[in-house]
Amino acid sequence: MELTVVMPCLNEAETVEVCVRKALACMEEHGVQGEVLIADNGSTDGSQQLAREAGARVVHVEEKGYGNALMGGIRAARGKYVIMGDADDSYDFTSLMPFVEQLRDGADLVMGNRFKGGIAPGAMPPLHRYLGNPVLSFVGRLFFPSVIGDFHCGLRGFRRDSILRLGLQTSGMEFASEMVVRSTLAKLDVREVPTTLSPDGRSRPPHLRSWRDGWRHLRFLLLYSPKWLFFYPGLVMMILGLVAGTALTFGPVEIGELAFDVDTLVGSSALVVIGFQAVLFAVFTKVYAAEEGFLPESRRIRKLIDIVSLEKGLIAGGLLALAGVVGLVMSLVHWQVRSFGELDPRESLRLVVPSATALVMSFQTIFAALFVSILGIRRSRETSMDVAAQAAEEAAEAVTREEAAKKEAAEAVTSEESTPAS
Fold it and tell me: Between β-strands 156-159 and 109-113, what pairing exists: parallel, antiparallel or unpaired?
């Protein structure tokens, strides 16, 4: 079978029948061997029976959620290709061939683009059309090397085996973003075709919750991009803190009518420490995600781990600790010169704050080196090649044992024949 059209369904009695008939008519018109599969997520309005009567196959998906329903349908699909779309009659299931043609041409994922194909009046709320979708799609293109202009189009086609290999995990509406992001990171062939969006045919409110589901999409994009979540913000804070702190260590800084002194020095120290911690978290996340298979392994991160060994990390942390201790000793000397009496904070803090900062960062560096070393311990994973090699070895051993048994039997027969009868 070439194509399965998967429609997630939760109480879509008003529209599911017409969607099924449109998809089946499109496949029949163009000679595509396929089926329509309804991934029902617990409908109580008779949607299942209406879909069956229209010619669809219905599978029940126990786990609630848009992503769960779709993954249940994708796993149950019999087609080489899958086209997914909502069962609310907002997408045009009579125009599936642009997706099929791109898939036949070798694409792994073909996204619909509603902004290029056309959005009918009233089909998309203004909040989604002018803020939600454009902003989230821009963030997706910024965070990941993607050219997709509409990350959240519900009508999309893909090779079933390619998507299943990704191991998609999200259960809710963010499943739409995960499919694009994981396909892009896996360097699959991702393409885009124009499609249209019409007002849905339901009388009830949609399942989508604008702010909740928008946040879930944004949260997913951030969590899958440690660079933008941790590294870039941390690097900016570190640079700002180092520049300001270095300048203030040698004395007050005046810019126009503004005067910056030791209070700002303390804030600069905090920026350096927080920024450094964020950068370390970016490294931790990348290493962990690569080891667990959530993100593809980064050659730069692997090279960094190989270069910055545990021993080098301990040495760097030790040097920072030494610098901090030296600074604290100098502050004690400064206090001794003042006969251990009252100190001017504007002078003493210029020694204490940088020293304390160096000590804090020294322990962060040492702990980070230990933690990255633990994360970098590679576990032995049994691959398909390992399984095949093991099976071949077992088969060869079985053949060897069988040949040995036959040889022993033949030798026994020969021995009996050569023994004279009594």
Answer: antiparallel
